[in-house]
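sry for the spam today, last one i promise. C-alpha cells for design, 130 residues
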C-alpha cells in the first residue's frame, strides 16, 4: 500500500494515539463550540486555547485526489491514490489518506475511513461508503 507516513507533532500527537485505538477525533473549542480538524493549539474562530476531543465517525466526501505514479517511497508499488476528504463532522476539516476503492474515486462521493496498521503506526485509509 501507499507510503504516506505521519509525523506526529505537538498538536497532533494525541490525535495519532487516538487513531491507534481506532478512535477518529476532532477538537471542539471550549470557548465557542466550533469543531476543528486537523488538530491545532488554538481555535481559528475565537483564538481560544481550551478545547476537548470529540470522537466522530470517520465519514466524509471526496474533495479531490491525486494518482501517484512516481515511486517516491521505496517498496511502495505505484500507481496509488491519495484522497482529500471533507469530513462530515467538520465541514472545514480536510483529511488525507490512501484510497482503497479499487478504482479512481469520484468527486463528491461518500466515503468512510478504515484503520490500517502499518508497522508501529495506525493509518486511516478511505473507501466508498457503499
Ligand atoms: Zn473557539
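last one done:
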Amino acid at each position: 500500500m501507499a507510503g504516506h507516513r505521519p509525523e506526529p507533532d505537538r498538536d497532533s500527537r494525541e490525535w495519532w494515539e487516538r487513531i491507534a485505538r481506532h478512535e477518529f477525533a476532532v477538537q471542539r473549542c471550549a470557548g465557542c463550540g466550533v469543531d476543528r480538524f486537523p488538530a491545532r493549539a488554538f481555535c481559528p474562530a475565537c483564538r481560544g486555547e481550551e478545547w476537548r476531543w470529540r470522537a466522530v465517525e470517520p465519514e466524509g466526501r471526496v474533495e479531490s485526489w491525486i494518482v501517484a505514479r512516481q515511486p517516491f517511497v521505496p517498496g511502495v508499488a505505484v500507481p496509488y491514490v491519495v484522497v482529500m476528504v471533507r469530513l462530515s463532522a467538520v465541514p472545514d476539516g480536510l483529511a488525507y489518506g490512501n484510497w482503497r476503492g479499487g478504482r479512481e474515486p469520484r468527486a463528491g462521493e461518500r466515503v468512510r475511513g478504515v484503520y490500517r496498521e502499518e508497522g508501529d503506526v495506525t493509518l486511516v485509509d478511505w473507501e466508498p461508503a457503499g
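The beta strands are 25-29, 35-36, 51-55, 59-68, 80-87, 94-98, 110-118, 121-128. ok im logging off now
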